[in-house]
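Holo model, 6-diazenyl-5-OXO-L-norleucine. Inputs:
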Amino acid sequence: MKFKPFATSLLATALTLTISCVHAASVAPAAAENGMVVTAQHLATHVGVDVLKSGGNAVDAAVAVGYALAVVYPAAGNLGGGGFMTIQLADGRKTFLDFREKAPLAATANMYLDKDGNVVPDLSSKGHLAVGVPGTVSGMELALSKYGTRKRAEVIAPAIKLAEQGFTLEQGDVDLLGTATDQFKADAKDLGTIFLDKGQPLKVGDTLVQKDLAKTLKEISGKGSDGFYKGWVAKAIVDSSQAGKGIITQADLDRYQTRELAPIECDYRGYHVVSAPPPSSGGVVICEIMNILEGYPMQELGYHSAQGLHYQIEAMRHAYVDRNSYLGDPDFVKNPIGHLLDRDYAAKLRAAIEPQKAGISQNIKPGVAPHEGNNTTHYSIVDKWGNAVSVTYTLNDWFGAGVMASSTGVILNDEMDDFTSKVGVPNMYGLIQGEANAIAPGKSPLSSMSPTIVTKDGKTVMVVGTPGGSRIITATLLTMLNVIDYGMNIQEAVDAPRFHQQWMPEATNLETFAVSPDTRKILESWGHTFAGPQDANHLAAILVGAPSLGGEPVGKNRFYGANDPRRNTGLSLGY
Ligand code: DON
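Output:
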């Protein structure tokens, strides 16, 4: 009698072991034959999948999702913000659309300083003076007209329906809205009318209807960019700005244009990385770190070994110095990209990294050799042809500057906070930045957003990106390293605990369980200091071919999606 349970338990153990060999620490990624969409809000994911099912390509789906997230994920999805889209087409062409916000023409380098030259708290992050000229509508329209196949009205229709008829709030939606109850109360006339119910927070099961936003979406659906940058929507943006002591004028809206730029590219252990160029720092920093790491036997050192972590942390520390010191809007500063991505430079940085001694951030600075003198959303889509789109767009903070363009339903960004308000003073992400990122009229603030695509022999193998301010770069990077260096499947790579080092402050942030106590002790004995976890990222990633690189496909499935479990609104889904 006693033997049977024992045998059963042996069998159970054997089964568990077999299963755990397939998926070490995570549920299996979502798998599908014909395409995959991963976004931070489940209804937006369905919008994207529906477009793919009806024969649209990944760009059509990306534009439909972009508009839908503005409705169902209003904390970060947006019309009043900006972002980036990295595109890798099945025919091998690749491009990057920069629809980042720009400083208004009346902006000045010292606009957030008081008369004594001190930064005025919140001026660059709350209210109309924090608002950059929005780029999202221009970006979506350019993407669709140049790389999409569907009519504008068709891809905007789901967003209009969700705004007009409303959608039922689930726990994740309510959690997100709950982060901004005070902002909604402070703006009772606009935000408060939409996102509060008689002054109180909305609840699970309530329907969120956004009639004004539906009107604005219809105007865009009929007129394209002109429906946003001209006419009554534009007038509402300008009037609200002026009434709220902002500086956006019609001339700012008239001159807004999406830039099409060459992506940043580099190779890492046989894989080709296609990522965001300035005005994002993302691609440059990711590639700089990868160039440094490629010289170390990372796989052999092992996942989160003390030595492996040390090299990763130090590579991050060095690359963030360069980010904060040299990078800015390419129309305004000369970004030394060739130098930063030179393999000889990576070798010099490796030589400056001692194998068992943490670098001291204060001593690693521009001018000292070898260095010369919370809220966004990301989505990833691949279609059946192999076209891939990676989009990160944002209002900066959750719900941006906490203000709207009256009667349009459009929430406005606080992207101006990404500029250097004053050299040496940290912004909301603790980034201490330099002159290259000073405010100037028409200039875009430096970003960390890193929508990235990894290819092999010209074909997409991975699409990846995340929100998270300055932590975007490291979270995107670590997910790629988890897949390439450690053989994790895409869900394991997304789930794995992360760490973050950004030069200043000195300490490396650790997610819970990122480092074992004895590994931490070793690293501390080498001079490393650590701090606790920061706000969670929400990564959205897709792997093409198999759940892991070089792995076997599951049945006929070609696409494997991973939604980040750190937040409770997203969904990966294919068909
Ligand atoms: O462009 C940037 O780097 C920031 N404005 C992104 C903000 C962000 O990711 C906040 N999310 N948690």
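The longest strand covers residues 82-88. Residues 374-376, 394, 396, 415, 418, 447-449, 467-469, 472 surround 6-diazenyl-5-OXO-L-norleucine (CB under 6 Å).
Archived with the compound record.
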